[in-house]
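== Protein entry: sequence and backbone fold ==
=== Local backbone shapes as whole numbers ===
==== Amino acids and backbone structure tokens ====
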Amino acid sequence: MSYGLKLLIKGDYACFTRPEMKVERVSYDVMTPSAARGVIEAIHWKPAIRWVIDRIHVLAPVRFENIRRNEIASKISASTVKTAMKARTVSGLHLNVDEDRQQRAMMALRHVVYGVEAHLEMTPRAGAEDNPAKHIEMARRRAEKGQHFHQPCLGVREFPADVTLVEEFPESTLPEAERNRDLGWMLYDIAYDRGREAMFFHARLEDGVIDLEKARQEGLAR
């Protein structure tokens, strides 16, 4: 028996950053599987489960907009945090925001609408009380009520995601000319249990849908 759910995800802006862009942020044309998983995990996640994205439906035209935003050039190092924890003080846990601030360009997506199909799997950390039906019901209930552990976002935290649990997706407004495209290599996910190993897949938009089940069968590149 398959335990899954369908979510309609919308937002005014989105940026699913291409990792090969080192200076300025440039978004992929569509949402990445890892970003979709992040949205679902913001609603419901436990160590006992793992969310797997099956399909991403692109329901709106792919439109880009160039914007500029302020970012911080550095971050507090892990060693500094560990030192503060051992000393039991927050002294030194700060950044000189004015000196570190920099303005960067971003090629972001505008007015995005996605339909995401996903299912969950149990992990080795599941206990005797854990089962797929229990967790999928919890996820559906939280999505229906608009509950989440933190604000779901579309690539970056400044771009919040509007998430709705649905039984069927609305009719797509993606133009016919954009419904079948080869999107090239796209980030699939990051394997944190293997030293943050990046996994990629050959993304194809077929009738407006990226089929991740098919991509996994074809094999992922590392």
Summary: Residues 19 and 187 are 8 Å apart (CA to CA). The radius of gyration is 19 Å. Helices lie at 33-43, 78-87, 97-100, 132-145, 212-218. Residues 70-102 form one domain.
